[in-house]
Specification:
237 residues; Nucleotidyltransferase, domain 5; nucleic acid binding; RNaseH_sf; 3'-5'_exonuclease_PolB-like
């Protein structure tokens, strides 16, 4: 039962990703061909490989991480705070800083990672990019040989599915129906690459990523039938 989990033991997270290169023509000929093959089913005849490249950020082989936001509860007596921070900049440093956080503060058996659709997207993406960057994978992300009940991850999408594996509910929809303040600001996921490459406004992306992280924590509280966080309880560090 999720009600029995100590909130202090959960690291909530969200990532933002973009295509590894700003545009299709920046790829070498072999990568262009591989992109063509990788996406032919999704594109069908509607888009050329070049036109479809704006979506490359959803594949770890063709995308990269530009921000990881994390949040965690600190509960002492009747005082509850939720601390949020972000790693951004050069991808290898983002991954190193995130890895250090997990290894130094969330590496014990009781610790859990939690995101929305994180088992299908965020966690595999982070692990794959660590391999590509030739970095060691923290034990919390290395799932090889682990049984399903040994995997130290929570996923608010999975919790909402209740075993209905064909069901998908977006973070935005779930916050709406559960009465959680909307995490979305002035951009959505489809605009992140434009904001990153054209507007070069990483601060805007960090704010967006942190709002999603807070929303995941709020949904988790709702699933436990607990009071939502108020603004004064959220600390940005």
């Amino acid at each position: 039962m999720i009600e029995k989990i100590n909130l202090n033991n959960i690291l909530f997270l969200d990532i933002e990703t973009v295509p590894e290169e700003e545009n299709f023509n920046s790829l070498d000929a072999e990568m262009q061909s591989l992109w063509d093959l990788k996406t032919q089913y999704q594109r069908k005849d509607e888009f050329s490989p070049e036109e479809f490249y704006e979506r490359a950020g959803i594949w770890a082989e063709f995308g990269k991480i530009i921000c990881i936001s994390v949040g965690f509860f600190t509960i002492k007596g009747d005082i509850r705070n939720f601390r949020v921070t972000s790693f951004f900049g050069e991808e290898k440093k983002i991954l190193k800083d995130f890895s250090n956080l997990i290894n130094n503060h969330f590496n014990q058996p009781q610790h859990l990672l939690c995101g929305h659709n994180s088992k299908e997207f965020d966690i595999p993406f982070i692990a794959r990019r660590m391999i590509i960057n030739q970095m060691p994978i923290p034990d919390k992300l290395n799932l090889f040989g682990k049984k399903p009940w040994e995997i130290p991850h929570l996923d608010t999408l999975e919790l909402w599915k209740f075993g209905d594996y064909k069901h998908f509910t977006s973070l935005k929809l779930l916050t709406k129906i559960l009465g959680v303040p909307s995490p979305k600001g002035d951009i959505d996921g489809s605009q992140v690459a434009h904001v990153f490459y054209v507007e070069k406004d990483i601060d805007r992306i960090v704010t967006y990523c942190e709002k999603d992280t807070i929303a995941v924590a709020q949904i988790f509280l709702r699933l436990r039938r607990e009071d939502l966080l108020i603004e004064d309880e959220i600390i940005h560090v």
